[in-house]
Amino acid sequence: MILPMDTASSQAGTEVFEQILGASSGLVLLQSEDCPGLLEQFRSIARHTGQAVYLWQPDTGLGSMRDAHVRVPDCQRLGNALRFMQQSLHFGVYVLVGLELPLSAMDDTLLRQLARMPQGHLRRVVLVNAPPALAEHLGTLAVHLRSDDSSPRRLRLRDGRWLI
């Protein structure tokens, strides 16, 4: 059975999301060749499941992926967003995109503390396509994952043409 492309890609996004939730560290380094597509899959997961999934970007700050118009106040700067993540007592997956080096000493310390958070309540900080130097610097504190978006796509025949 060949799944429609959007079903197949959402299934891959769900698998990556489950790997994130099952990670042994609070900090996940995720490599993806299709970052916008992956973020859209996470947004869809957040909307359909009601999960608390947040996205931080340098230009927009921290906001909900479930409700695009909901922004977390005072979390434009990375340090403020990391402190918010650390102090939150609720479940949350925090996706950070566009992280640039060098990090301040405080931001580095906060990332390390988030990686070591107790397992009492689930919180994951996901750095998407983090700079290689940061991935090397964090070493074994973080779980390293790759999304499956680079896997070969299944072709399907529609109206006499092969489509991806």
Automatic annotation (TrEMBL):
It comes from the Bacteria. This is Uncharacterized protein. It comes from Rhodanobacter fulvus Jip2.
